[in-house]
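Subject: sequence -> structure tokens, single chain

Hey, anyone have a minute? Need the predicted structure for the following. Not urgent.
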Amino acid sequence: MKHLFLLLPAFFAVLPWAKAQYAPIPNGGFENWIAVGNYQDPVSWSTLNSVSNPGGVLTTQKDSTTPDAGMYSLKLITRTVPGTVILPGVAVCGTFDYATATITGGFPFTQNPPFIIGRVKFKPAAGGDAPLIIVVMSKWNTTTNKRDTLASSLNYFQNSPGAWRKFSVPLTYTKPGTPDTCMLAFSSSDIYGSILDGSYAYFDQLSFSNFWAGLEDVTAGPAGQLRTFPNPATGGSLHVEFSGNLANENSTLCLFDVSGRQLQTQAMKANQPATLSTENLAPGIYFLEVSGKAGMAATRLVVQ
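Reply:
Had a minute. Here:
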């Protein structure tokens, strides 16, 4: 099956859905920056520079030395601000209220993509920190006069080798309908846990997609090793087990088809394998994802 995987990118490239067009993420390549006093912020993104700059520190920076593509990339770094606190590097395609630690707004978006993809490199400070991404698709409810969340995702990045790599984050849709707004947020630190001075993360080439970034075989993910057997699946069930950081915590196992549609989901208990039913799956190619606070890993599954 190794030879089949080598042919998959060329095979998928000719499929109609493989070339589906999604509206671009505003300044998703971070090529455009605007001067704000004595510093710069990425166009269409909110940061905490207005809070950190009076202390002589910038937590969001324009990187021109190591961009993955183009002239610039986004650099987020957690810094100690004199007289204040330790602030994470935060970039929000929306509005971040530092006083209340809330994120609102976003940009107009009226599609239902299954994945957000991009490029990332990072190095958390020692002690358990981790950068993260938050995605929320919402729609204004004219009956309740409130926003309904249609889809969301919170994903931590773990154990990066410090080099650029692709990432793919699936969006979990919990309500039907088409959104009218998308909110994106990136942070150099775990804003819900440890915020450690010196953690940094770079992001570049953000976009929405119908499938995993590059269709890479990411069986060995940054959070550990995902093993499935038999693969190809032939007997109606699939055995799934994990080693590494994710094995030590409760996590979630999801099955997607090649269009990004989520078909199954189930909980995985720490240090215990799982069994996935393949009885009702048509022959073809699928994707398995295991995600938890330690990160995410995914692999391809062939059903015969």
